[in-house]
Amino acid sequence: MLPQSKGKMFLADERGLNEMAWFRTYNTFNFGRYYNEHKTPFGSLYVLNEDILAGGKGFNMLVEEPTDIILLPVVGAISFKNTEGHNGIIEAGQVQLLHMQKGTQLEIRNPYESDLVKFLQLWIKMPAIEETTPVSASFTLDNHLREIFNREGCHRGAIVKLASKEEAVYKLSNPENGVFVFAIEGDMEAQYRLLYAGDGLALWEVEEVEIEALSASAIVLIVEVSL
To answer: Is the pTM of this model over 0.90?
Structure first.
């Protein structure tokens, strides 16, 4: 019998959905008007939204507690601006880490006039820090596990793109942490569980996570967080 680590599935078709003519957001955890008693945060990770934004449109969000926000474009680019004066544009193949203080706002916009953009936003609780300068990084999306953000001692993230039957192994920096695996694209097996695009898998009491692509191509995001 294959060993089963402790885990919880977050299925794509069970996510919250908020939809308007110019905006669509899928919520893995409780967010805004969406509430499900089974979709509570996983450790310090309390928001994982997959957003689609029409050309020229944007929105503002209020942060109610000290939080690291990670912005990860999947298709196209987004611009961002917060109340502390930090701003910029990031595109697919880049990631942005912003530390937001309690009571601050973040504006996200689609810089294109007519093209749709698709991006992920992750919110991770952490103690307030004085240094709030945004950290951005570029990465190559291939079959090598790439670290894309790292708040040392708190949380880190990695991404990988695998062809059919290719495998990757993520080793935790701290075995007391948990790991959230999110299928951005394609079909895969993670720690002996099947995931399809939009599915998430929370794991704990593990030292490493094994992932194998089952479709022709699969892109997976791995987020290690404190529990």
So the answer is: yes
